[in-house]
Amino acid sequence: MKIWVPMDSAAKALGADEVAEAITREAASRGIDAQIIRNGTRGMIWLEPLVEIDRGDGRLAYGPVGVDDVPALLDGAMDSLGPVENIPFFARQTRLTFARCGIIDPLDLDDYQAHGGLAGLRRAIAMTREDIVQQVTDSGLRGRGGAGFPTGIKWKTVMQAEAAQKYIVCNADEGDSGTFADRMIMEGDPFTLIEGMAIAGIGVGATRGYVYLRSEYPDAIKVMNAAVRIARDRGMLGQSVLGSDHEFDMQIRVGAGAYVCGEETSLLNSLEGKRGVVRAKPPLPALEGFLGKPTVVNNVISLATVPVIFERGAEHYAGLGHNKSRGTATLQIAGNVRHGGLFEAGFGITLGEVVNDIAGGTASGRPVKAVQVGGPLGAYMPVEKFDTKMGYEEFDAEGGLIGHAGLVVFDDSADMLRMARFAMEFCAVESCGKCTPCRIGAVRGVETIDRIAAGDAAAADLLTDLCETMKDGSLCALGGFTPYPVMSALRNFPDDFATQKEAAE
Amino acid sequence: MTFSSPAPTDEDIRAIVAPMTSLEGPLLPMLHALQDEYGVIPDIAVPVLADVLNLSRAEVHGVISFYHDFRKSPAGKHILKICRAEACQSMGGEALAESTLARLGIDWHDTTQNGAVTVEPVYCLGMCACAPAAMLDDRVIARLDRARMDKLLDEAGA
């Protein structure tokens, strides 16, 4: 009998370790010969801890499993959810980037290969640099960290740059609320990120890579460090990648709790051991990045998607999606939702379908009021905009951004003035201090919103003006995009900004 | 963190950071190693790191003070980080944080009188689909309510 209990940190935060211990204990006391495998999560967080058991006729899912359920679980007396693939939330997905996540033992390289792992890297090794970069361009892959820049173009710039040393830097500083896809893939299928970085290295001629991983993810740090060691021991990394003439090795570096380090130039400064202050562009990091050398800076999901593009071909990947948003979006459904988790599907599904259909509405059972899409710097979308399709251009047209594709749902108890105030407060706490509109503007923004709350009707115009200044005058997205949540709250939910004076009248 | 052991010397600091001198961009790994060892960045580390890395003391100090993680004063025995970000707010995180601070009688960044727990804000633990969440030392706990938080605080001796 094989039993899978996730070691993903969300599952652990809901008691997976205790359940695994109880299963081990209970199985031993009954003399059951059970192999317990700690896998990643399948992404249906409301069912965690989700345990799967194979009694010889396929994997059956049970969840959420508590310690008290374990005796019944082993007796076969607990109701099964059936195979995971048949659960509607899962059945509707197209899993490419997350194809293996939750299926394999994350640190078993043989299991990884048995499920298609390393096929992409082997194919890339046999290709020329130009063909590797062209393959990524043809796939239509765009940066999944938020900006949506075409990955192939970035790689081409680095490939064509002449330098004695080039770098691949993976941005794993996933600080946006509502996002956990990076964490989930690093904990559930770390070799796919390593493989993607190796392909990137071979493609652009970089021999060294770094993953800049936030310190708030202790489990992901442990898994990634272990995976890099295994990859090195097994010849997937090192002087001769899989026995080829290509050299590539990498290290995991831990951040230190600064949100702004998710911005690529600030990240590079931090990686160099400096304060995480934003750099002006140009020069582009692709030409003068880490230690002044040509550097690919890509998000975790972008890099983790590269292996499947090489495994199945660029056409297969580009065949999915909508308009200029090709491939799959790894939606992270979060906040006040009944069914939260990771949902990977081709771009083009509408916001309303995601929230009402897939997520099943709010956890509280109250009406949905707003959905913040794209993290703390993303707009609050009202229910009236639920027909917006998930796509880079489509969200842009609605005054929002898809960002890292995280969705945080709020019910009607949310006070949008408070959320706008929080956005400014967060910007003030996390500003790196380089640009005045961000450093000072965020503080003034909190004060101005407090004036609105206190009944100063004129302050709303001042806030609008301040937001324009922050948008136009900040170097990076922290100061430049904080106006998105603030202004979307103000415009879409004017009732919450009606001053106390007006309310009294 | 109680300083029952003597304050670290110049040599102690050098011994801890020595294995990292060949790294590209070694300062953050060094600071993490020092904080793992001492629970704070000891004052004496500033001139030593400046010497080892050929930086000014002001530059080293600037890096230490830039990042939320690095402490100049010792924390309590346990550090409780409560998520303040949007997804946790959508599930009542703010009220939970307020009631926790009220029970402990302290504010953000403070330590309980018995030295058991320091409470810090954190912006996202990646538990956004099972909010609200907190982290006690390295252990993440999700879908918290007041009862679970009370249990956690009891365990930590707060």
Automatic annotation (TrEMBL), chain A:
Record-annotated NADH-ubiquinone oxidoreductase 51kDa subunit iron-sulphur binding domain positions: 417-462
Gene3D superfamilies the UniProt entry points to: 3.10.20.600, 6.10.250.1450, NADH-ubiquinone oxidoreductase 51kDa subunit, NADH-ubiquinone oxidoreductase 51kDa subunit, iron-sulphur binding domain
CDD domains in UniProt: TRX_Fd_FDH_beta
Positions in coiled-coil regions: none
Name of a matching Pfam family: NADH_4Fe-4S
Name of this chain's protein: NADH-quinone oxidoreductase subunit NuoF
Membership in a protein family: Belongs to the complex I 51 kDa subunit family.
Annotated source species: Paracoccus maritimus
Keywords in alphabetical order: 4Fe-4S, Iron, Iron-sulfur, Metal-binding
SMART domains from the UniProt entry: NADH_4Fe-4S (SM00928)
PROSITE patterns membership: COMPLEX1_51K_1, COMPLEX1_51K_2
Cofactors: FMN
From TrEMBL, chain B:
Transcription listed as a keyword: no
Matches recorded under CDD domains: TRX_Fd_NuoE_FDH_gamma
One Pfam family, short name: 2Fe-2S_thioredx
Cofactor(s) of this protein: [2Fe-2S] cluster
Alphabetized UniProt keyword annotations: 2Fe-2S, Iron, Iron-sulfur, Metal-binding
InterPro entries the record matches: NADP_DH_HndA-like, NuoE-like, NuoE_N, Thioredoxin-like_sf
Domain of life: Bacteria
Gene3D superfamilies to which the protein is assigned, alphabetical: Glutaredoxin, NADH-quinone oxidoreductase subunit E
Family: Belongs to the complex I 24 kDa subunit family.
Name of the protein described by the UniProt record: Formate dehydrogenase subunit gamma
Organism expressing this protein natively: Paracoccus maritimus
